[in-house]
Amino acid sequence: MASAAAISNADKDALLKRIEELEDDKAKLQAELKGDDLRVRGVNGRVRTDWTKEEIQAVYEKPLIDLVFDAAMIHRLYFSSREIMRSTLISYKSGGCSENCGYCSQSQHHKTFVKPTPAMQIEEVLEAARRAKAAGSARFCMGSAWRSVGKKHAFKRILELVKEINGMGMEVCTTLGMLTPEQAKQLKEAGLTAYNHNLDTSREYYPKVVTTRSYDDRLDTVKNVREAGISVCCGGIVGLGEEEDDRVGLLHQLATLTEHPESVPINALVPVAGTPLGDKLIAEGKAPQWDEMVRMIATARIVMPRSMVRLSAGRMEFPMAAQGLMFMAGANSIFTGDKLLTTPNPAFSEDDRMFEILGLVGKAPHTAPLKSPYSADDDVADAADAARAAQPGPRFVDIQVNKSSSKLETSL
Ligand code: SF4
């Protein structure tokens, strides 16, 4: 649409000057947008395992408002925006672990409130699973404070539990420490859906977190789980004293595995007195902030678009509005129940209220992500890019001065 109006000669010079300024602004904005194009290159919802660390860093460093927007769009390519899986995690065997993870209340290397306890009775676990199912949980997870699944008898009980809980129609997940290929195979045969084994942080920062087993030990277990055909649940923790570079490093490690983990838990450290990293965090008052979690979740969502991103430990510290932003940014699972292993977690009723207020619904067990809008080898226009282009963005008013007629002509 164009319009024309007579202007006085006196205003003409001022207008020309103003137009020059606007042209400058326009050039600057266009230069920025070019940068923007670079920033979003590759961020289109395609599942890639060839991310460079620099690419992930560029995603991670986006202005938070853009990052959440991009992640929210990509999330909607693969998942319903309202579906959040409720999972329940119990501590099947607490304390006395021989590993020295610097954040963990269950390590025998640290003096914490957790005392070693024997494994739960089978019926006790099954009752907890029934309660979790009745409260809307789609996945039931059992954690054991073990370096690895050592004793045959203990493993047999786990296999029995997996079979029983699988029979209840819930997804079953365990986290039992390091696994051999043979143990992974047996868990698969018993009906295990997923196995959790976190990398915790970047390879570089890892030795500051734990020294009793290596990063590669962890990757070996992840590989054994994958090869047995069990879903991989593997993520990390924010708040270990790591730099942002380590957070990007962790996401890079996960996003460049041969296959992305089906589940990526993002935890905020809940500091426990008596643990080296918990004490450090308390002394320095550097608890993970909501925006750090949003950034981490959104980046995970973008670089691993078909994975469940699980907002895990530390939820108690974040108000509902902040959690809402995390769901917006692509988190689609939470742990419910008033305890997460040994640390506090919101009660079932509080989460019910949050679901009602935010309009969330529970995600059913065994529901796969939506089909990719991209086929393996197509060059179909990027759906997310198209959606992005349709959004209101910066617009330029094209202003021309008709110098001969002293007319100012504008068009949108
Ligand atoms: S292996 Fe698990 S239970 Fe053991 S110290 Fe590390 S985090 Fe804690």
TrEMBL record:
CDD domains: Radical_SAM (cd01335). It is an enzyme of class 2 (transferase). HAMAP family: BioB (MF_01694). Residues 401-412 have a biased composition (Polar residues). InterPro entries: Aldolase_TIM, BATS_dom, Biotin_synth/BioAB, Biotin_synthase, Elp3/MiaA/NifB-like_rSAM, rSAM, rSAM_sf. Belongs to the radical SAM superfamily. Biotin synthase family. Keywords: 2Fe-2S, 4Fe-4S, Biotin biosynthesis, Coiled coil, Iron, Iron-sulfur, Metal-binding, S-adenosyl-L-methionine, Transferase. It holds the Pfam family Radical_SAM. Residues 82-312 form the Radical SAM core domain. It comes from Hondaea fermentalgiana. One of its GO terms (molecular function) is 4 iron, 4 sulfur cluster binding. Its cofactor is [2Fe-2S] cluster; [4Fe-4S] cluster. Pathway: Cofactor biosynthesis; biotin biosynthesis; biotin from 7,8-diaminononanoate: step 2/2. This is biotin synthase. It comes from the Eukaryota. SMART domains: BATS (SM00876), Elp3 (SM00729). GO terms for cellular component: mitochondrion. Residues 369-412 are annotated as: Disordered. Its EC number is 2.8.1.6. GO terms for biological process: biotin biosynthetic process. Residues 5-39 form a coiled coil.
